[in-house]
Design goal:
By secondary structure, the chain is mainly β. It has one helix at about 270-275; strands at about 10-15, 20-25, 25-30, 35-45, 50-55, 60-65, 80-85, 90-100, 105, 110-115, 120-125, 125-135, 145, 160-165, 170-175, 180-185, 195-200, 205-210, 215-220, 225-230, 240-245, 250-255, 260-265, 280-285, 285-290, 295-300, 315-320, 325-330, 335-340, 345-355. It has a domain at about 1-100. It has one helix and 30 strands.
Length: about 375
């Protein structure tokens, strides 16, 4: 449920999954969990289109919604502004203008990753004016994958995954520290599939990829560029828009715009070797399917059936602990569900209307 006049535009967990940032038509919010607590609520004049928490929630970066009255589109180029705000110091760190639409923003080790239609801009937090630009294929869905990099380590690779083109790669992974590039050719361009979602595991050794084919998620070995296996999320094609490695890279969470969330267990090296050639499609360990706030359908080791949800149920999920999963929907609800692999039903521990549950500002830093 959304509060009157407020619409959820963007959802993002911090990389350590301790915070949830929510960008809305009225501003943005920051939550912590167990119990679910609103720790920050900020009004932004034109609302927030995209948001990413940086540095454990102390710094928030967001893309403002474009003002309808700021300029006439036929006379002036499109304007989008990236605002970086330090709430610990209560100061605006930077405000950057982009003339082309920003499709997504990610954060990795004092670096912002700005995704646009044909490029990715790498913006260092200590050098905003000199971004590095990486050319990509047309990125209709803002697909981007990144590794988890500890803030204090200096010797880690900083990998990002981007859509390529038929001539250079279907997908490529690049280390932005030294420009090392790994190219993948699984045949997406041949079948005219467009990449909708990408993600790298925490070590940068595995790449997960989903396309407009809408049924399977491919897992690749980054070093040798081989496809290890494919997960089947169902018989019916759906728009897969969220991938997240969990539990020390042992599991993969997948969500699509029909409101379904799947959890896959990754295979060990021995299990991969035991698979027969041509038989490398594996079903989800379970799936959630959100049809309305009061009803959560839950299945284990069953293939996803066709559901007639509106294709706008953006969901993001994470594992809080063993057999406890949290899913946040842009409909305004946060779900905590526990499950047992031997049962076919989940227990919904909590369903929080996170927009209207906290109608007042706990903190306010107004424009």
């Amino acid at each position: 449920m959304e509060t009157a006049g407020e619409k959820v535009n963007s959802l993002r967990f911090s990389r350590d999954y301790l915070y949830l940032a929510v960008g809305t038509s009225l501003g943005y919010r920051l939550y912590t969990f167990q119990p679910t607590t609103l720790v920050l609520k900020v009004a932004v004049t034109n609302g927030v289109k995209l948001i990413i928490p940086c540095s454990n929630g102390n710094i928030i970066s967001y893309i403002e919604n474009s003002s309808n009255t700021e300029c006439e589109p036929e006379k002036e180029a499109r304007k989008e502004y990236l605002v970086i705000y330090n709430h610990l110091k209560n100061t605006q760190v930077a405000k950057l203008r982009f003339s082309k639409e920003v499709l997504d923003i990610r954060y990795m080790k004092s670096t912002l990753i700005i995704v646009q239609s044909y490029s990715v801009k790498i913006v260092k937090m200590d050098d905003y004016k000199n971004p590095t630009i990486i050319k990509t294929a047309e990125n209709l869905y803002g697909a981007i994958g990144i590794t988890f990099c500890a803030e204090t380590k200096t010797d880690e690779s900083q990998l990002i995954a981007c859509p390529g083109s038929e001539s250079d790669a279907d997908v490529f992974v690049i280390d932005i520290k030294d420009d090392t590039r790994y190219c993948f050719f699984p045949g997406y361009a041949t079948y005219q599939y467009v990449v909708t979602a990408l993600e790298l595991n925490s070590q940068g050794t595995l790449l997960a990829s989903a396309t407009t084919e809408g049924k399977n998620i491919d897992i690749f070995d980054v070093q040798d560029r081989s496809k290890l296996y494919s997960f089947s999320r169902g018989m019916f094609p759906k728009h897969i828009d969220y991938l997240s490695f969990q539990q020390n890279d042992q599991e993969l969470i997948v969500s699509s715009l029909d409101g379904a969330v799947h959890l896959f267990y990754l295979l060990t090296d021995q299990e991969i070797k035991e698979q027969q050639e041509g038989n490398t499609f594996f079903k989800a360990a379970f799936d959630f399917a959100f049809s309305k706030p009061s009803e959560v359908k839950f299945k284990i080791n069953r293939e996803q059936t066709e559901v007639n949800f509106e294709d706008n149920k953006k969901c993001i999920s994470c594992k809080l602990e063993k057999n406890l999963i949290m899913t946040v929907s842009n409909s305004g609800y946060l779900y905590l569900g526990s499950y047992k692999e031997e049962n076919e039903e989940a227990i919904i521990e909590e369903a929080v209307d996170y927009l209207s549950k906290y109608p007042k500002h706990t903190q306010s830093y107004l424009d």
